[in-house]
Amino acid sequence: MKVIKFGGSSLASATQLKKVYKIVVDDPKRKFVVVSAPGKRFAEDVKVTDLLIDCGAKHLLGETATELEQAVLTRYASIADELGLGHEVMERIERDFKELISSDKTNPDRYMDRIKASGEDNNAKLIAAFFRSQGTEAHYVNPQDAGLFVTDEPGSAQVLPESYENLYRLQDRDGIVVFPGFFGYTKDGEISTFSRSGSDITGAIVANGVKAEVYENFTDVDAVYAVNPAIVHKPKEIIELTYREMRELSYAGFSVFHDEALVPAFQAGIPVQIKNTNRPELPGTRVIHRREATNGPVVGIASDGGFCSIYITKYLMNREIGFGRRVLEILEGAGLTYEHMPSGIDDLTIILRENQMDCHTEDTLLDCLKNELSSDEVVIEHKIALVMVVGEAMKHNVGITARAAKALSDAKINIEMINQGSSEVSIMFGVKEESEKKAVRALYNEFFN
Amino acid sequence: MKVIKFGGSSLASATQLKKVYKIVVDDPKRKFVVVSAPGKRFAEDVKVTDLLIDCGAKHLLGETATELEQAVLTRYASIADELGLGHEVMERIERDFKELISSDKTNPDRYMDRIKASGEDNNAKLIAAFFRSQGTEAHYVNPQDAGLFVTDEPGSAQVLPESYENLYRLQDRDGIVVFPGFFGYTKDGEISTFSRSGSDITGAIVANGVKAEVYENFTDVDAVYAVNPAIVHKPKEIIELTYREMRELSYAGFSVFHDEALVPAFQAGIPVQIKNTNRPELPGTRVIHRREATNGPVVGIASDGGFCSIYITKYLMNREIGFGRRVLEILEGAGLTYEHMPSGIDDLTIILRENQMDCHTEDTLLDCLKNELSSDEVVIEHKIALVMVVGEAMKHNVGITARAAKALSDAKINIEMINQGSSEVSIMFGVKEESEKKAVRALYNEFFN
User: Fold this and answer.
1) What chemistry does it catalyse, as a reaction equation (chains A, B) (predicted)?
2) In this complex, do B346 and A247 lie within 8 Å of one another by their Cβ atoms?
3) Is the pLDDT of residue A217 over 90?
4) Which end of chain A, N or C, is more open, meaning fewer C-beta atoms within 10 Å of its C-beta?
5) Could you give the 3-state DSSP secondary structure of residue B414?
6) Cβ of residue B82 closer than 8 Å to a chain A Cβ
7) Is the confidence at residue A141, as pLDDT, over 80?
8) A18 a known binding residue?
């Protein structure tokens, strides 16, 4: 059995839904279909979820939102109309939506979560109806009925472990199961949504629950690319990569999807196949636990800006037991998380995301690090980018570091930091943000051209 | 004014003492002479300090040690005799030594410290007498009289801050001050010795106290070499290096002298000149705060074995606030100090000195790291060597890393770890111990040949 999940752009219009139907029925193993809300049909279009958020916000402010409500319903209606579905499904959607809009607003977070979740929920109803209209048995399944229980954290719900056993029973259902992504129910019967990429999370949870042989994730790109296409024109596609490689790439800004969304599938050892709804004949990218074949030691190059570094120096630091631990305690006390902490003999550097820092935090932090630790010098540097060269096969490959460092050197890029050796899967270079793109291009050329 | 310190091999025989005398009187600024105990005259010779340790140990065991005592006294007597010194000085040394041997043994550490310190103390008396015999006013000064006070930690005494003010008054003494290295006095009037390189420490303390313009450290090598001569034949000499470079090199096994011995001079901003007693006309090596001139970005290459690495991996580690801090707490709890802690996204590596670990500590540690932190995997790797490429000018020099990594790659050496970016003064490579020498040679060839 396969779990197949479609993203918003794959479900944005009747044309797209016809492709989706074809894909699903093309393989009888595709029994579990997890769906997003209708996404953008064209670049300037508005996603249904965004319409819903505006709509909910207005109602919470006590305003009317007739136009927004109409816009939401029109999206479903135009799809239903074009697909030639009967009135029944739209009547149900309209009735449910009106009821929802006027529901209890005493807890605004819960109200918003209900409104947001309706985007996926109504789409699942509509898609099930469409499949049936095509002569295929398909049923909308409500997450509460299926037993997808989550913590009571609106907007960042976590799945409860018992859900997997409940979902396992979905196998007994007749026909195709159409399941709305993005949300589950608390034990009190309240809707609670996942964080970003919420439909990806639902797909991974369902895949885990039903013990799927593969979790197919259909989106609007042909594959995961070896490098950001905004930086390198027409980059190579990755046929196969491991979870760890995926995660390292995601960390440094790869956004095909949010790696943590895969955790439930990862835990169950289920491979994830990323494919394009518009070109399902292409192989796409497969994310797996281990891989044998390799198309070179480096699988991809990623980068992300927005880091800063704090450099602390103190003579005889390495003789001072507990120095590193005290530095980390000061960071924790300031509510900051750090990314890396390379250390020398008399110095250490903390790399952290800049968006955690404001002037006040920065001043306080520098003051603590200087005075509480009696440091000789504390220097903060802003606008650092991390560039990652990722590939599981690198570990046993003498010379990858040399090639990478030389490529950067030839491009006249100064390396502020190297982090190699902890992760066996990546080498990380710290460079100034202004050199980020140049660095990525230099490394791509070295390893892929 | 200059403080000039001579090591044991510079003071091992009458021939050596004549060279020393010539060096001292050659520059009227050389007023403060700090001396070690007589060292080896030839490769198989025994240092006076080692004779004294054996001698003290035997007495503590209640045995006699007539031969050892005689050997000690003979060393001084043969020097005194050859230098044509009168009986007076040897009579004093013999009397003092006999008294010392039979002194109170209720505190064995203090007894040993007194015995050990006599090596330097008697040599200072002898050298002062020799200088006077040559017509130069010179006086032995006892550290207690000079106010060199230290903590009550036999074998690892620390200087007390008030000593510097006391020593400042040494300037008022007439003639040349001959000062024994290696020990000071507690406030209770007990002798307490410094750790290894104790005479270097005394020299640095005196230099700080008298505000010397330079601390000249005479030894038996022409200079600090750019690499260990046991690994590379006839390596380049370093004309000038900074304290920080010196310290980075010392850390990785450079043993010209123990960098921490320089701390008192470093704190007072006093340059250290390393010279060869046997070839004083050579420029030697100057250790300074900052340097302008540079003979290339890399000043030296050092290496040291005996490290191990502990690799910890846990999925989503970087989201876990306090993970690094808890790792360091576990290490502290086990009484272990770590050297470096490179971290990836889901993993971190701890580099520590292997000699801290026995099987029991290792098992306990691995167990704690695995279970208390719920890590996915904890792997320890032994026999790691760290190879350091050191030079202050590297920071602004694009391409040093590339050259270093390429040199290692060309020599088919796998880089287990790179640590660059915290220290602005060095790049550190972790390699297997079996590749250590090969790595050092490859890097030396790259940067110096």
Assistant:
1) L-aspartate + ATP = 4-phospho-L-aspartate + ADP
2) yes
3) yes
4) C
5) coil
6) no
7) yes
8) no
Cβ atoms of A348 and A270 within 8 Å: the answer is no
Q: Which residues of B touch A423 (CB under 8 A)?
A: 344-347
User: How far apart are the two ends of chain B, measured CA to CA in Å?
Assistant: 39
* Beta pairing, strands B240-242 & B191-193: unpaired
**Which stretches of B102-169 are DSSP H helices?**
108-133, 143-146, 162-168
From chain A, the residues in CB contact with B336 under 8 A are none
The residue ranges of chain B whose pLDDT is under 70 are 253-257, 293-295, 396, 422-423
A49 assigned to a ligand binding site:
yes
Cα A18 to Cα A74: distance, rounded to the nearest angstrom: 19
Q: Phi/psi zone of residue B413: left (φ > 0), alpha (ψ -120 to 50 degrees), beta?
A: beta
Please report the number of interchain residue pairs, chain A to chain B, with beta-carbon separation below 8 angstroms: 178
DSSP state of B236: P
Closest by alpha carbon to B17, among B131, B176, B175, B136? B131
State whether B340 and A343 contact (CB < 8 Å): yes
pLDDT digits over A331-342, tens only? 988 888 888 888
Q: Which of B337, B348, B409 sits opposite A402 (nearest CB)?
A: B409
Q: Of A265, A252, A246, A228, which is closest to residue A307 (Cα–Cα)? A: A252
Contact B206, B217 (CB under 8 A): no
| Residue list for the binding site of B for substrate | 49, 120
Residue A308: pLDDT band (50, 70, 90) is very high
Cross-chain Cβ contact A423/B328 below 8 Å: no
B402 in contact with chain A, both atoms CB, cutoff 8 A: yes
The values of phi and psi at residue A54, to 5°, are -60, -45
The answer, for B156 touching chain A at a CB cutoff of 8 Å, is no
Q: Residues of B annotated in the binding site for ATP, as ranges?
A: 5-8, 219-220, 225
Tokens at residue B107, please? Answer: 């505190």
- Count of H helices and E strands in chain B? 14, 17
- CB-based contacts of A173: which residues, under 8 Å, 6+ apart? A139, A141
A422 touching B, CB under 8 A?
A: yes
Q: What share of chain A is helix, strand, coil (3-state, %, to 5)?
A: 45, 20, 35
Distance CA B348, CA B245 (A): 27
Q: Smallest Cα–Cα separation from B433: which of B414, B418, B411?
A: B414
B421 with A349: Cβ contact below 8 A:
yes
Determine the angle formed by the axes of helices B323-333 and B359-371, rounding to 10 degrees: 150
Q: How far apart are CA B288 and CA B245, in angstroms?
A: 10
CB A436 within 8 A of CB A429: no
On whether A120 is known to bind a ligand per the annotation, the reply is: yes
Q: Count of residues for chain B?
A: 449
Question: What are the tens digits of pLDDT across the range B184-208?
Answer: 999 999 999 998 779 999 999 999 9
Nearest to A128 by CA among A33, A26, A40, A221: A33
Token pair recorded at residue B128? 């002062």
Rg (CA), chain A: 25
pLDDT confidence tier of residue A71, bands split at 50, 70 and 90? very high
In B149-196 the beta strands, taken as DSSP E runs, fall at 176-180, 183-185, 191-193
Contact A260, A158 (CB under 8 A): no
Burial of A296 (0-12, 13-18, 19+ CB in 10 A): middle
Q: Give the closest residue to B329 by CA, choosing from A18, A143, A264, A329.
A: A329
Please, which residues bridge with residue A379 across strands?
A311
CB A190 within 8 A of CB A205: no
Q: Which two tokens stand for residue A104?
A: 């209890």
Q: Distance from CA of residue B309 to its chain's centroid?
A: 26
Question: b/e map of A41-77 (b: 16 or more CB within 10 Å)?
Answer: beeeeebbbbbbbbbbbbbeeeeebeebbebbbebbb
